[in-house]
Amino acid sequence: MPWLQIKVQTSPDHAEQYEDLLLAAGCAAVTYQDTEDEPIFEPDLGTTPLWNNTTVTGLFAAEHNLEETLELLHEAQISLFGEQEQKPSFKSEILEDKDWEREWMSHYHPMQFGENFWVCPSWCEVPDSSAVNLMLDPGLAFGTGTHPTTALCLEWLAAQTLQDEAVVDYGCGSGILGIAALLLGAKSVTGVDIDPQALQATQDNLVRNQLEASRLPVYFPEDVPPIQADTLVANILAGPLKQLAPTLAELIKPGGKLLLSGLLDSQGEEVIEHYSQWFDMEPAANKEEWIRLSGTKRH
Prior knowledge:
Elements: E1 3-10, H1 12-24, E2 29-34, E3 54-61, H2 66-81, E4 89-95, H3 100-105, E5 111-112, E6 117-121, E7 132-136, H4 148-158, E8 166-170, H5 176-183, E9 188-192, H6 196-208, E10 218-219, E11 229-235, H7 238-250, E12 252-264, H8 268-275, E13 279-281, E14 285-287, E15 290-297
């Protein structure tokens, strides 16, 4: 069936008030969107900042009386803003009926990284059955291959000799990097993440690729056993990567390889400075405004 929606363009200070109003009016769901394409690349830990111009959208069933809700919102504005001329604008519209699951699935396609490695959504046919194919279900955890940082990491992994190596995927998300390492020859991978949904997604995608669970055990950071990895990959964010530098260095054996991403170009030098006391770092690789760093641990 079709849906109805009301969009309110407002500031971060009033976004939650409009969310409460829409929910009180009977909407089925509320979403926040960036009105003016001003992404927040790396918020402070523990914060959920909103954009300077935020669109709050309420989704309603087709039989809902939008006129009554719009009247409620206009009345609420008077108490919020008084009689000032500039108030948040409202837009109401009919949302066409779609198969939303198929709509979501249509955004993902097989992607090639390197000469012989593909990441394929689990509902797609593999484009090259003779290649190394990673079957992935893009679920709640981060990591599908579409983001530049994930692509940079996959390209790096596809170019390495990982045969019989022990690998750590720190911040494993969907498990895409750890599973890629296994398919590319690694003996074992240890997955680490703070999000229980990520640990579950990694295990689910491991099964999807017909790999034994024992080859990729997953842990919360405080539970990681002592490891001396041949290769460690961490696609997180600059702030956590700087804080984790001593921890990650301890998990890699001398001569082992380090791969870092989740970084903006402007953050590279500071992260390199944190890791240079243990690693010989290589020049950054760029994709759009994001970078990948790699290095080798000194003996």
